[in-house]
Specification:
Helix content is 41%, strand content 0%. By secondary structure, the protein is mainly α. The protein has one domain. The protein starts with 8 loop residues before the first helix and ends in a 27-residue tail after the last helix.
Length: 80
């Protein structure tokens, strides 16, 4: 989910994405092969949400989280 290694910082990432997404670009196939070799995967919110749903938290364990920035944004199970 992160930019490929040695992509050239933020400007390089924008250039990379332009070539990566443009199938008519002369360097597209080479860039796609390089990105695949790096394990690059485009951001996919549906895939990420499915991954997050697979994490099995028990509602009885939520109170054990001790972090000064922790805040329940929405908790449909706990009534306070």
């Amino acid at each position: 989910m992160a930019p490929p290694e040695d992509v050239g910082g933020i400007p390089g990432f924008y250039d990379f994405m332009e070539v990566y997404r443009d199938e008519k670009h002369s360097e597209h196939e080479e860039m796609k092969a390089w990105a695949d070799g790096q394990g690059f995967k485009e951001y996919d919110p549906e895939w990420i949400n499915e991954l997050l749903k697979s994490i099995a938290y028990k509602k009885t364990e939520w109170d054990k989280i001790k972090h000064h920035r922790y805040k329940i944004i929405e908790d449909k199970y706990r009534k306070e």
